[in-house]
Amino acid sequence: MTALRIQHLKKDHGRGLVIDDLNLTVDSGEFVCLVGPSGCGKTTLLQLIAGLDRHYLGDIEISQRDPKALRIGYASQEPRLLPWRTVRDNLSLALPAGMDPARINALIDTVGLDAVADEFPETLSVGMSRRVSLVRAFAIDPDLLLMDEPLVSLDAPTARRLRSWLLGLWQKRPHTVLFVTHDLREAIEIADRILFLSAAPLKVLADIRVTIERQNRNPEAIEAFSAHLRTCHPNLDALL
Predict the structure, then answer these.
(1) What are the tens digits of pLDDT across the range 77-105?
(2) Domains, the chain, ordered by start
(3) Do residues 32 and 26 touch, judged by C-beta distance below 8 A?
(4) What does the pLDDT read at residue 131?
(5) pLDDT of residue 108
(6) Pick the residue with more confidence: 68 or 162?
(7) DSSP code for 202
(8) What's 103's DSSP letter?
(9) What interhelical angle do 156-172 and 102-110 show, nearest 10?
(10) pTM of the prediction?
């Protein structure tokens, strides 16, 4: 089933088109990475999908389980945790009315946050704060999960651990995900499909399915697939 359908999307910031006649679909439970040059409009696209900006032309359709309660999770580069609330309280505040609060405890245990659950954000490392942000986005059991470079600027070991946490959460109940990244190897490791985007005005230049089985996505296989993509698309590095 198609979870997200975008048709003839156009967005003008007043200084020219940022997005021009964009068309794309994402299937339910699919993990799609968006890769494109800085300033091409990736964050703008996520904001339009999330409903944070409604000034656009075209259609954005999101399928949902409950037509009256669309749930969109959003994780960005900055965790944006409330400093006067504990980790547990920050996560609990994200829960929709009526959702079992025990879900928070289960997620805290799953990603190893139990030791800091009652700490305040100022005591957390950057990697720990990002982990809280990821859990908060998953906590609402979203129909669609939007992730805007949530692992950027982390050292390689921390980013690798967080990718492992992220995939672990996603595989327990595959949500529909749009994940923005500049890291091709990261995209190959986590995505079902990779959409390569043009400089503004944003368009899809290539739609690539990652054909490596998930259990076989080791560094050697990822590097080989990366080399294959660069051979097939010689201008790829300009989009990273």
Answers:
(1) 888 889 999 998 988 888 877 677 788 88
(2) 2-71+142-239 (3.40.50.300), 83-140 (no CATH)
(3) yes
(4) 85
(5) 83
(6) 162
(7) B
(8) H
(9) 140
(10) 0.89
**Tokens coding 99:** 């959702």
- Is the model's pLDDT at 191 over the cut of 70? yes
Q: What is the pLDDT of residues 39-86, one digit of tens each?
A: 888 999 999 999 888 899 999 999 877 767 788 999 888 888 899 999
d(CA 76, CA 92): 19
Which runs of consecutive H residues, i.e. helices, occur in 75-232? Answer: 87-93, 102-110, 126-139, 156-172, 184-190, 219-232
Query: 154 with 16: CB under 8 angstroms?
Result: no
**Residue 153: HSE in the Cβ half-sphere, 13 Å Cα cutoff:** 8
Write out the two tokens for 93: 């505040």
Report the pLDDT value the prediction gives residue 45, as an integer from 0 to 100: 95
- Cis amide prior to 219 (ω within 30 degrees): no
Q: Is residue 190 a contact partner of residue 179, using CB atoms and an 8 Å limit? A: yes
Q: Which residue has the tokens 């990002």?
A: 130
Q: What is the average pLDDT score of the chain?
A: 88
Contact 196, 35 (CB under 8 A): yes
- With tokens 């950027």, the residue in question is 152
User: In whole angstroms, how far apart are CA 12 and each of 17, 28, 59, 61, 126?
Assistant: 4, 29, 15, 20, 34
Q: In the block, which residue shows the tokens 């305040």?
A: 120
Q: How many CB atoms lie within 10 A of CB 144?
A: 22
